[in-house]
Design a protein that fits this description.
Rossmann fold, alpha/beta, seven-stranded parallel beta sheet, four-stranded mixed beta sheet, binds manganese (II) ion, 11 strands, 2 domains, 15% strand, 379 residues, 15 helices
Length: 379
Protein backbone atom coordinates (compact mmCIF):
# COMPACT_ATOMS: atom_id res chain seq x y z
CA UNK A 1 0.00 0.00 0.00
CA UNK A 2 1.42 3.37 -1.06
CA UNK A 3 0.31 6.49 0.80
CA UNK A 4 -0.37 9.50 -1.38
CA UNK A 5 -0.30 13.17 -0.51
CA UNK A 6 -2.35 14.97 -3.14
CA UNK A 7 -1.77 18.65 -3.84
CA UNK A 8 -4.50 20.25 -5.94
CA UNK A 9 -7.16 17.64 -5.19
CA UNK A 10 -10.13 19.58 -6.57
CA UNK A 11 -8.60 20.39 -9.97
CA UNK A 12 -8.73 18.24 -13.08
CA UNK A 13 -5.60 16.17 -12.29
CA UNK A 14 -6.59 15.90 -8.61
CA UNK A 15 -10.02 14.52 -9.43
CA UNK A 16 -8.51 12.08 -11.95
CA UNK A 17 -5.93 10.97 -9.36
CA UNK A 18 -8.74 10.16 -6.92
CA UNK A 19 -10.48 8.23 -9.69
CA UNK A 20 -7.32 6.13 -10.16
CA UNK A 21 -7.10 5.55 -6.39
CA UNK A 22 -10.75 4.46 -6.35
CA UNK A 23 -9.92 1.81 -8.94
CA UNK A 24 -6.86 0.56 -7.05
CA UNK A 25 -8.11 0.58 -3.48
CA UNK A 26 -5.71 -2.17 -2.39
CA UNK A 27 -2.68 -0.35 -3.75
CA UNK A 28 -3.15 3.29 -2.85
CA UNK A 29 -4.39 5.31 0.05
CA UNK A 30 -4.76 9.08 0.10
CA UNK A 31 -3.51 10.45 3.43
CA UNK A 32 -3.86 14.17 2.78
CA UNK A 33 -5.34 16.60 0.30
CA UNK A 34 -4.69 20.22 -0.41
CA UNK A 35 -6.70 22.65 -2.51
CA UNK A 36 -7.15 26.35 -2.96
CA UNK A 37 -10.72 27.04 -1.88
CA UNK A 38 -13.31 24.55 -3.17
CA UNK A 39 -14.38 23.54 0.35
CA UNK A 40 -17.52 21.60 -0.62
CA UNK A 41 -15.45 19.39 -2.91
CA UNK A 42 -12.76 19.02 -0.25
CA UNK A 43 -15.32 17.97 2.36
CA UNK A 44 -16.81 15.43 -0.03
CA UNK A 45 -13.35 14.04 -0.85
CA UNK A 46 -12.42 13.66 2.84
CA UNK A 47 -15.60 11.60 3.35
CA UNK A 48 -15.31 9.47 0.21
CA UNK A 49 -11.63 8.66 0.71
CA UNK A 50 -11.49 8.77 4.49
CA UNK A 51 -8.85 11.52 4.49
CA UNK A 52 -7.63 12.97 7.80
CA UNK A 53 -5.25 15.71 6.68
CA UNK A 54 -6.31 18.85 4.87
CA UNK A 55 -4.63 22.04 3.81
CA UNK A 56 -6.65 24.87 2.25
CA UNK A 57 -4.64 27.69 0.76
CA UNK A 58 -7.26 30.45 0.86
CA UNK A 59 -7.56 31.61 4.48
CA UNK A 60 -11.27 32.53 4.40
CA UNK A 61 -12.12 29.20 2.83
CA UNK A 62 -10.00 27.44 5.47
CA UNK A 63 -12.06 29.05 8.25
CA UNK A 64 -15.30 28.21 6.46
CA UNK A 65 -14.13 24.61 6.13
CA UNK A 66 -13.37 24.52 9.86
CA UNK A 67 -16.93 25.65 10.51
CA UNK A 68 -18.68 23.12 8.26
CA UNK A 69 -16.46 20.12 9.01
CA UNK A 70 -17.82 17.84 11.76
CA UNK A 71 -15.18 15.10 11.57
CA UNK A 72 -12.92 15.59 14.60
CA UNK A 73 -10.24 13.30 13.13
CA UNK A 74 -9.48 15.77 10.38
CA UNK A 75 -6.41 17.87 10.99
CA UNK A 76 -6.44 21.23 9.21
CA UNK A 77 -2.98 22.63 8.53
CA UNK A 78 -1.97 26.28 8.55
CA UNK A 79 0.79 26.09 5.95
CA UNK A 80 1.62 23.85 3.03
CA UNK A 81 5.16 23.36 4.33
CA UNK A 82 3.78 22.03 7.66
CA UNK A 83 1.34 19.88 5.72
CA UNK A 84 4.12 18.26 3.69
CA UNK A 85 6.51 17.89 6.62
CA UNK A 86 4.16 16.41 9.23
CA UNK A 87 2.37 13.64 7.37
CA UNK A 88 3.67 10.16 6.62
CA UNK A 89 3.41 9.48 2.91
CA UNK A 90 5.23 7.77 0.03
CA UNK A 91 4.26 9.73 -3.08
CA UNK A 92 3.58 13.41 -3.54
CA UNK A 93 1.18 14.05 -6.40
CA UNK A 94 1.82 17.69 -7.22
CA UNK A 95 -1.13 18.95 -9.25
CA UNK A 96 -0.98 22.55 -8.06
CA UNK A 97 -1.41 25.33 -10.61
CA UNK A 98 1.54 27.51 -11.56
CA UNK A 99 4.46 28.71 -9.46
CA UNK A 100 2.75 27.60 -6.24
CA UNK A 101 3.98 24.06 -6.96
CA UNK A 102 7.68 24.95 -6.72
CA UNK A 103 8.37 25.05 -2.95
CA UNK A 104 6.14 22.05 -2.10
CA UNK A 105 8.18 19.93 -4.56
CA UNK A 106 11.41 20.99 -2.85
CA UNK A 107 10.01 20.17 0.60
CA UNK A 108 8.92 16.70 -0.50
CA UNK A 109 12.28 15.98 -2.18
CA UNK A 110 14.04 16.88 1.08
CA UNK A 111 11.85 14.29 2.79
CA UNK A 112 12.97 11.76 0.14
CA UNK A 113 9.45 11.23 -1.17
CA UNK A 114 8.69 10.14 -4.72
CA UNK A 115 7.33 13.01 -6.81
CA UNK A 116 4.54 12.41 -9.32
CA UNK A 117 4.66 15.73 -11.10
CA UNK A 118 1.76 17.32 -12.91
CA UNK A 119 2.84 20.85 -12.01
CA UNK A 120 5.15 21.66 -14.93
CA UNK A 121 5.92 25.14 -13.58
CA UNK A 122 8.01 23.47 -10.84
CA UNK A 123 10.56 22.52 -13.50
CA UNK A 124 10.05 25.62 -15.64
CA UNK A 125 11.05 27.99 -12.84
CA UNK A 126 13.48 25.75 -10.98
CA UNK A 127 14.55 22.77 -13.10
CA UNK A 128 18.23 23.60 -12.58
CA UNK A 129 17.68 23.26 -8.82
CA UNK A 130 15.02 20.56 -8.64
CA UNK A 131 16.76 17.92 -10.78
CA UNK A 132 20.13 18.00 -8.96
CA UNK A 133 18.30 18.12 -5.61
CA UNK A 134 16.26 15.03 -6.55
CA UNK A 135 19.47 13.26 -7.52
CA UNK A 136 21.14 14.27 -4.25
CA UNK A 137 18.24 12.87 -2.20
CA UNK A 138 17.75 9.81 -4.43
CA UNK A 139 14.23 10.85 -5.37
CA UNK A 140 12.37 9.82 -8.55
CA UNK A 141 10.50 12.55 -10.37
CA UNK A 142 7.81 10.89 -12.48
CA UNK A 143 5.97 13.09 -14.93
CA UNK A 144 2.18 13.08 -15.14
CA UNK A 145 1.96 15.61 -17.98
CA UNK A 146 0.75 13.41 -20.87
CA UNK A 147 3.60 14.27 -23.25
CA UNK A 148 6.30 13.73 -20.64
CA UNK A 149 4.70 10.57 -19.36
CA UNK A 150 4.80 9.29 -22.95
CA UNK A 151 8.48 10.22 -23.36
CA UNK A 152 9.33 8.82 -19.92
CA UNK A 153 7.68 5.50 -20.77
CA UNK A 154 9.40 5.25 -24.17
CA UNK A 155 12.81 6.05 -22.70
CA UNK A 156 12.27 3.46 -19.95
CA UNK A 157 11.46 0.82 -22.53
CA UNK A 158 14.59 1.55 -24.59
CA UNK A 159 17.50 2.03 -22.24
CA UNK A 160 20.49 0.94 -24.29
CA UNK A 161 20.38 3.56 -27.00
CA UNK A 162 20.95 7.33 -27.12
CA UNK A 163 18.22 9.82 -27.85
CA UNK A 164 18.50 11.69 -31.14
CA UNK A 165 15.43 13.84 -30.69
CA UNK A 166 12.36 14.31 -28.54
CA UNK A 167 9.22 15.17 -30.51
CA UNK A 168 6.51 16.72 -28.35
CA UNK A 169 3.08 16.71 -29.92
CA UNK A 170 0.81 19.73 -29.59
CA UNK A 171 -2.88 19.90 -30.39
CA UNK A 172 -2.36 23.45 -31.66
CA UNK A 173 -5.11 24.65 -29.36
CA UNK A 174 -8.34 26.34 -30.42
CA UNK A 175 -6.59 28.88 -32.69
CA UNK A 176 -4.51 26.60 -34.86
CA UNK A 177 -6.60 27.64 -37.89
CA UNK A 178 -7.28 31.23 -36.83
CA UNK A 179 -5.44 33.84 -38.95
CA UNK A 180 -2.99 35.94 -36.92
CA UNK A 181 -4.79 39.18 -37.77
CA UNK A 182 -7.85 37.89 -35.88
CA UNK A 183 -5.91 37.13 -32.69
CA UNK A 184 -6.62 40.58 -31.24
CA UNK A 185 -10.35 39.83 -31.21
CA UNK A 186 -10.11 36.49 -29.40
CA UNK A 187 -12.39 36.43 -26.35
CA UNK A 188 -11.83 34.64 -23.04
CA UNK A 189 -14.72 32.27 -23.77
CA UNK A 190 -13.20 31.31 -27.15
CA UNK A 191 -9.78 30.74 -25.60
CA UNK A 192 -11.29 28.49 -22.93
CA UNK A 193 -12.57 26.00 -25.53
CA UNK A 194 -9.77 23.47 -25.88
CA UNK A 195 -10.29 21.07 -28.81
CA UNK A 196 -9.00 17.82 -27.28
CA UNK A 197 -8.39 18.03 -23.53
CA UNK A 198 -10.64 19.14 -20.71
CA UNK A 199 -8.42 21.00 -18.21
CA UNK A 200 -8.32 23.87 -15.73
CA UNK A 201 -8.58 27.49 -16.90
CA UNK A 202 -4.93 28.47 -16.48
CA UNK A 203 -3.54 25.61 -18.57
CA UNK A 204 -6.31 26.00 -21.16
CA UNK A 205 -5.28 29.62 -21.80
CA UNK A 206 -1.63 28.52 -21.88
CA UNK A 207 -2.64 25.99 -24.54
CA UNK A 208 -4.38 28.68 -26.58
CA UNK A 209 -1.22 30.84 -26.63
CA UNK A 210 0.96 27.69 -26.88
CA UNK A 211 2.84 28.86 -23.79
CA UNK A 212 1.91 25.46 -22.42
CA UNK A 213 3.93 23.77 -25.17
CA UNK A 214 6.80 26.17 -24.49
CA UNK A 215 6.72 25.20 -20.82
CA UNK A 216 6.63 21.54 -21.81
CA UNK A 217 9.80 21.98 -23.88
CA UNK A 218 11.56 23.46 -20.83
CA UNK A 219 10.10 20.69 -18.66
CA UNK A 220 11.38 18.01 -21.09
CA UNK A 221 14.85 19.59 -21.16
CA UNK A 222 15.14 19.19 -17.38
CA UNK A 223 13.38 15.85 -16.95
CA UNK A 224 15.28 14.03 -19.67
CA UNK A 225 18.53 16.02 -19.65
CA UNK A 226 18.29 16.70 -23.39
CA UNK A 227 19.54 19.92 -24.98
CA UNK A 228 17.01 22.32 -26.53
CA UNK A 229 18.19 21.72 -30.09
CA UNK A 230 17.10 18.09 -29.68
CA UNK A 231 13.56 18.93 -28.56
CA UNK A 232 10.94 19.86 -31.11
CA UNK A 233 7.21 20.40 -31.12
CA UNK A 234 4.88 19.24 -33.87
CA UNK A 235 1.19 19.99 -34.28
CA UNK A 236 -0.93 16.87 -34.05
CA UNK A 237 -4.55 18.06 -33.77
CA UNK A 238 -6.01 14.71 -32.60
CA UNK A 239 -3.66 14.47 -29.56
CA UNK A 240 -3.67 10.69 -29.96
CA UNK A 241 0.11 10.40 -30.12
CA UNK A 242 1.13 11.90 -26.81
CA UNK A 243 4.76 12.31 -27.87
CA UNK A 244 7.61 10.54 -29.63
CA UNK A 245 11.28 9.78 -29.20
CA UNK A 246 13.70 9.33 -32.07
CA UNK A 247 16.78 7.30 -31.20
CA UNK A 248 20.22 7.41 -32.83
CA UNK A 249 19.41 4.36 -34.99
CA UNK A 250 16.72 6.44 -36.71
CA UNK A 251 13.81 4.54 -35.18
CA UNK A 252 10.98 6.67 -33.84
CA UNK A 253 8.72 5.37 -31.07
CA UNK A 254 5.37 6.98 -30.39
CA UNK A 255 3.09 6.49 -27.41
CA UNK A 256 -0.59 6.45 -28.39
CA UNK A 257 -3.73 6.39 -26.36
CA UNK A 258 -7.04 7.96 -25.48
CA UNK A 259 -7.03 11.45 -24.01
CA UNK A 260 -7.61 10.30 -20.46
CA UNK A 261 -5.19 11.59 -17.82
CA UNK A 262 -5.86 8.55 -15.65
CA UNK A 263 -3.42 6.55 -17.80
CA UNK A 264 -0.35 8.69 -17.07
CA UNK A 265 -1.49 9.10 -13.45
CA UNK A 266 -1.84 5.33 -13.03
CA UNK A 267 1.64 4.77 -14.47
CA UNK A 268 3.15 7.46 -12.27
CA UNK A 269 1.60 5.95 -9.14
CA UNK A 270 2.58 2.35 -9.93
CA UNK A 271 6.12 3.22 -11.14
CA UNK A 272 8.43 1.31 -11.53
CA UNK A 273 5.76 -1.38 -11.88
CA UNK A 274 2.74 -1.64 -14.15
CA UNK A 275 -0.86 -2.62 -13.48
CA UNK A 276 -3.62 -3.80 -15.78
CA UNK A 277 -5.75 -0.73 -16.36
CA UNK A 278 -9.50 -0.70 -15.75
CA UNK A 279 -9.98 2.36 -17.98
CA UNK A 280 -11.35 2.39 -21.54
CA UNK A 281 -8.75 1.49 -24.16
CA UNK A 282 -7.86 3.17 -27.42
CA UNK A 283 -9.75 1.98 -30.50
CA UNK A 284 -7.99 2.55 -33.84
CA UNK A 285 -11.27 2.09 -35.74
CA UNK A 286 -12.54 5.35 -34.27
CA UNK A 287 -9.50 7.29 -35.47
CA UNK A 288 -8.67 6.70 -39.10
CA UNK A 289 -6.66 9.91 -39.50
CA UNK A 290 -3.67 11.23 -37.64
CA UNK A 291 -2.38 14.57 -38.96
CA UNK A 292 0.88 16.43 -38.40
CA UNK A 293 1.71 20.05 -39.15
CA UNK A 294 4.63 22.40 -38.68
CA UNK A 295 4.40 24.76 -35.72
CA UNK A 296 3.87 28.39 -36.75
CA UNK A 297 6.39 30.29 -34.63
CA UNK A 298 5.25 33.58 -36.10
CA UNK A 299 1.68 33.05 -34.94
CA UNK A 300 2.54 31.48 -31.60
CA UNK A 301 5.40 33.66 -30.37
CA UNK A 302 5.29 32.20 -26.86
CA UNK A 303 6.90 29.06 -28.18
CA UNK A 304 9.98 30.84 -29.50
CA UNK A 305 10.13 32.89 -26.32
CA UNK A 306 10.13 29.69 -24.24
CA UNK A 307 13.05 28.30 -26.27
CA UNK A 308 14.95 31.54 -25.80
CA UNK A 309 14.34 31.76 -22.06
CA UNK A 310 15.07 28.06 -21.64
CA UNK A 311 18.40 28.36 -23.47
CA UNK A 312 19.35 31.50 -21.53
CA UNK A 313 18.56 29.62 -18.31
CA UNK A 314 19.23 31.29 -14.96
CA UNK A 315 16.22 33.31 -13.89
CA UNK A 316 14.76 33.81 -17.37
CA UNK A 317 12.32 30.89 -17.22
CA UNK A 318 11.08 32.07 -13.79
CA UNK A 319 10.49 35.57 -15.21
CA UNK A 320 8.72 34.10 -18.23
CA UNK A 321 6.49 32.06 -15.93
CA UNK A 322 5.64 34.83 -13.46
CA UNK A 323 4.80 37.36 -16.19
CA UNK A 324 2.71 34.74 -17.98
CA UNK A 325 0.78 33.80 -14.84
CA UNK A 326 -0.17 37.39 -14.15
CA UNK A 327 -1.19 37.97 -17.77
CA UNK A 328 -3.25 34.78 -18.02
CA UNK A 329 -5.30 35.68 -14.93
CA UNK A 330 -5.67 39.26 -16.21
CA UNK A 331 -6.96 37.87 -19.50
CA UNK A 332 -9.35 35.54 -17.65
CA UNK A 333 -10.60 38.61 -15.74
CA UNK A 334 -10.96 40.36 -19.12
CA UNK A 335 -8.54 43.10 -18.07
CA UNK A 336 -6.27 42.59 -21.10
CA UNK A 337 -6.63 41.33 -24.66
CA UNK A 338 -5.43 37.94 -25.88
CA UNK A 339 -2.58 39.53 -27.84
CA UNK A 340 -1.54 41.54 -24.76
CA UNK A 341 -0.47 38.30 -23.07
CA UNK A 342 2.40 37.64 -25.48
CA UNK A 343 3.29 41.34 -25.78
CA UNK A 344 3.57 41.94 -22.04
CA UNK A 345 5.36 38.66 -21.33
CA UNK A 346 7.87 39.30 -24.15
CA UNK A 347 8.45 42.79 -22.80
CA UNK A 348 9.11 41.50 -19.28
CA UNK A 349 11.62 38.95 -20.59
CA UNK A 350 13.38 41.45 -22.86
CA UNK A 351 14.08 43.92 -20.07
CA UNK A 352 15.27 41.23 -17.63
CA UNK A 353 18.93 40.81 -16.82
CA UNK A 354 20.63 37.49 -16.26
CA UNK A 355 21.23 36.13 -12.75
CA UNK A 356 22.00 32.76 -11.29
CA UNK A 357 19.03 30.68 -10.21
CA UNK A 358 18.95 29.74 -6.54
CA UNK A 359 15.85 28.95 -4.49
CA UNK A 360 16.04 32.44 -2.95
CA UNK A 361 16.66 34.28 -6.22
CA UNK A 362 13.75 32.44 -7.88
CA UNK A 363 11.37 33.37 -5.03
CA UNK A 364 12.56 36.97 -5.26
CA UNK A 365 12.37 37.33 -9.03
CA UNK A 366 8.93 35.70 -9.06
CA UNK A 367 7.63 38.32 -6.60
CA UNK A 368 9.31 41.21 -8.38
CA UNK A 369 8.11 40.13 -11.84
CA UNK A 370 4.54 39.73 -10.59
CA UNK A 371 4.48 43.22 -9.10
CA UNK A 372 5.91 44.78 -12.28
CA UNK A 373 3.61 42.81 -14.57
CA UNK A 374 0.57 43.67 -12.42
CA UNK A 375 1.36 47.35 -12.75
CA UNK A 376 1.63 47.05 -16.56
CA UNK A 377 -1.63 45.08 -16.67
CA UNK A 378 -3.42 47.69 -14.57
CA UNK A 379 -2.13 50.67 -16.52
MN1 LIG B 1 0.72 18.37 -21.60
Amino acid sequence: MKNILLLGSTGSIGVNTLSVVENFKDDFNVVGICANKSIDKILEQTKLFNIDNVYIEDKDSREKFRAINTNKNIKIYESIVDFINNIDFDILVNALVGYSGFIPTIEAIKRKKTIALANKETLVVGGDIIMPLAKEYGVDIIPIDSEHSAIFQIINHFKNIDIEKIIITASGGPFFNTPINEFKNITTAEALKHPTWSMGKKITIDSATMMNKGFEIIEAHHLFNVSYDKIEAIIHPQSIIHSMVEFTDGEIYAQLGVNDMRFPIQNALTYPNYKKTPFNRFDFRKYNTLNFFEVDFNKFKMLGLAYECGKLGGLYPAILNAANEVCVYAFLDEKIKFTDIVNIVTNMCEKATQSEATIESIIEVDKKTRIETESIVNS
